[in-house]
Design goal:
By secondary structure, this protein is of the alpha+beta class. The chain contains three helices and four strands, in the order H-H-H-E-E-E-E. Strand 1 and strand 2 form a beta hairpin.
C-alpha cells in the first residue's frame, strides 16, 4: 500500500494525518496487509466456522415502543440549541467554537 493509498483511505475515513504520521503508518499498514496475504495460502476447506448462524426464527419480535420525550433526553445535556444537543469540539473534521 503506497502513501497515496493510505492518504486516500484516511481522507475517506475523515482522519487527518500529518506527514510524520503518514510516514510512520505506511510501513505499518504494509506489514499488516502482508500478514493478511498469508491467509490466502491457507487451506480452510475442512475448517468449521467459529460463529454459528442464527436463524431469523430465533430472533425476538421487533415491536416499536414509546420512546423518551424530548424534555427527558435533554434533561442532562449541558448545551442545547433549537431543541437539540449542541456539540462543541471537532466533529466530522470541522472545529466549532465553544
Amino acid at each position: 500500500m503506497s502513501k497515496m493509498d493510505i492518504k486516500h483511505t484516511a481522507e475517506l475515513s475523515r482522519i487527518r494525518l500529518t506527514k510524520e504520521e503518514l510516514k510512520k503508518f505506511t510501513p505499518q499498514m504494509e506489514q499488516i496487509l502482508d500478514s493478511v496475504k498469508v491467509l490466502k495460502d491457507v487451506d480452510t476447506k475442512n475448517v468449521q466456522p467459529m460463529k454459528q448462524h442464527l436463524p431469523f426464527s430465533e430472533l425476538r419480535e421487533d415491536i416499536a415502543g414509546e420512546s423518551m420525550k424530548q424534555k427527558e433526553v435533554l434533561s442532562n445535556v449541558k448545551h442545547i440549541a433549537n431543541g437539540m444537543v449542541k456539540v462543541y469540539g471537532e466533529v466530522f473534521g470541522g472545529i466549532e467554537e465553544s
